[in-house]
Structure formats: structure tokens, C-alpha cells
Specification:
This protein has 274 residues and is of the alpha+beta class. Helices cover 32% and strands 22% of the residues. It has 2 domains: 166 residues, no CATH class; 88 residues, no CATH class.
């Protein structure tokens, strides 16, 4: 249940605002219209995107929810059904290119909070995999003016760690079933995932210290959480499902025991161990 609540809050956090001011639809904009899933393509949270709005939804009780004679009727009625909590407006957008020359959309968004307008901005960036997007955000959020939101976006570079993955409905239907389980990960791809995460090491440390107010008790936890998120992104990009782990609980990395190259990589001084 905690995971479900966190996932839903993540969507609200990511898409806290939206509705288009122009009836003219750019081809880049058409590319994001549809159903999108944050973090996990088979998760219980999604966002419906049309020409004018982003609508976050969650399914509090999946189709797999166990029903007994003691299950309350109101819960039974919610099983397998999506709930809408908000409709978010896009008030301004521009089309740019990311560091790899791929399409990206810069969005300024508005949402009403306690009767007042609150503004945020995000970069909605294409990846090399069809149906996967990366959303980059500035560190600070919840501005009183559009200008403040735009200014904050200047720090949301395409390589920063304030990012989340989104998966399209098409990806969920056509690509997810074809992803390889972690048992099949190759040595080359394992090394690629480690090096990708460690390329953010300096920024990750700075982020964790700031996030935890330099509280040593929580810095390690914050580092591992963000590092795992970046590792999952790389694994999805490489064609693996990081959530498809051995059912018997065995370690899928056992096959690399004794490999000198991997042992050397794992023994490199780093905050991140995999």
C-alpha cells in the first residue's frame, strides 16, 4: 500500500498542472497524446494526455486484489477501476532539442492550490526507445509566477538527476511483454548500467546532502533510492525489465562471480554498489 501511495504522489508531483492555450498541435505534441505510466509501465498509476489537459489517475485496487466474504462492498466496487483526482493545465509550451538532438517539450503548468495559482515547469524529453520519455524538473517547485517557473527551468538540464521515466500505453502493450528478465542480463549491459549511474555520482551526493539537510542517517538511503531509479532507466533502455526478478529470490548476478573485470569495477571506490 505504501508503494501505491508513493506512486500516486509521484504522478501528482510530476504532472502538477496542465491545459493547452493553442488549438494548433505540433507534431512533437502529438507524440505525447495518449496514456502514460510513470516509473513502471505495468503500475497502478497513469496519466491521460489529450490536446488540452493531463489527467492523473490511480487504480487503488488492481484486478489481482483478493476478495473474500469480508471484503467491504465499496472496495469490491473499486477493484480494477481507475480514479481521477485532478485535471492539470498546460498554460505555455515550447519545442526544443535535447542533448542528443531529439525532440523535447518545455512545459509551464498551472494548478490551483488553496484558491491560488501555482506554477511549475518540466522538460518532456524523447529517448532512444519508442514509447519512453524522460521528464526533467528543476529542484524547486511551486512558484507564484510564470516567470519564476521559467527561470527555474534553466537549471533543469537534460543530464540532471531530477528526472522520471514515463511509458506510453503502446509501450505497455507491445514492448513490455518482450523485455528480457534480469536473469538474462549480459556482462556488457550490467557494466553499462553501473557506469551510467556512476556518471551522476557527484551530483547524486550533492542532491542527497541537500535533500536530507546533511543528515547522515538518511543520506545513504536517498543515494540508493535515486541511484536505483537511474539504474532502472538504463535497464529499460537496454531492453530489460528491472522488475522481472527471479521468482525464487536468487541473485541474478551470481553468474558473474569470479569475473575479474566486474570484480574490479565493483571494487572501485564508489558510493554505489550493485
Amino acid at each position: 500500500m505504501k508503494h501505491r501511495i508513493f506512486s500516486f504522489l509521484l504522478v501528482i508531483f510530476l504532472f502538477s498542472f496542465f491545459s493547452c492555450t493553442s488549438s494548433k498541435i505540433n507534431s512533437n505534441e502529438n507524440d505525447i497524446i495518449g496514456t502514460w505510466y510513470p516509473k513502471k509501465p505495468d503500475g497502478n498509476v497513469r496519466v491521460l494526455i489529450n490536446q488540452k489537459s493531463f489527467i492523473p489517475q490511480r487504480m487503488p485496487y488492481s484486478q489481482d486484489t483478493e476478495v473474500t466474504e469480508n471484503t467491504p462492498q465499496d472496495i469490491k466496487e473499486k477493484i480494477g477501476k481507475w480514479e481521477t483526482k485532478d485535471t492539470i493545465k498546460v498554460i505555455e509550451k515550447s519545442f526544443v532539442k535535447n542533448d542528443e538532438g531529439k525532440d523535447a517539450i518545455l512545459l509551464v503548468m498551472e494548478r490551483q492550490r488553496d484558491g491560488k495559482a501555482q506554477y511549475n515547469s518540466f522538460l518532456f524529453s524523447t529517448t532512444e526507445v519508442k514509447g519512453m520519455k524522460t521528464v526533467f524538473t528543476p529542484k524547486q517547485k511551486g512558484f507564484e509566477t510564470i516567470e519564476e517557473a521559467k527561470k527555474a527551468m534553466q537549471e533543469a538540464k537534460f543530464q540532471n538527476i531530477n528526472q522520471e521515466i514515463l511509458f506510453s500505453g503502446e509501450y505497455k502493450k507491445n514492448t513490455l511483454p518482450k523485455l528480457k528478465p534480469m536473469l538474462e542480463i549480459t556482462k556488457e549491459d550490467y557494466i553499462a548500467a553501473i557506469k551510467y549511474v556512476r556518471s551522476f555520482e557527484s551530483e547524486l551526493k550533492e542532491y542527497a546532502i541537500e535533500k536530507t539537510n546533511n543528515d547522515s542517517e538518511y543520506i545513504g538511503y536517498e543515494l540508493r533510492k535515486v541511484a536505483q531509479k537511474l539504474a532502472d532507466k538504463k535497464l529499460f533502455l537496454l531492453g530489460y525489465n528491472p522488475n522481472d526478478l527471479p521468482a525464487d529470490g536468487s541473485n541474478y548476478l551470481d553468474k558473474f562471480k569470479g569475473d575479474k573485470e566486474i570484480e574490479e569495477l565493483n571494487n572501485t571506490k564508489s558510493e554505489f554498489r550493485f
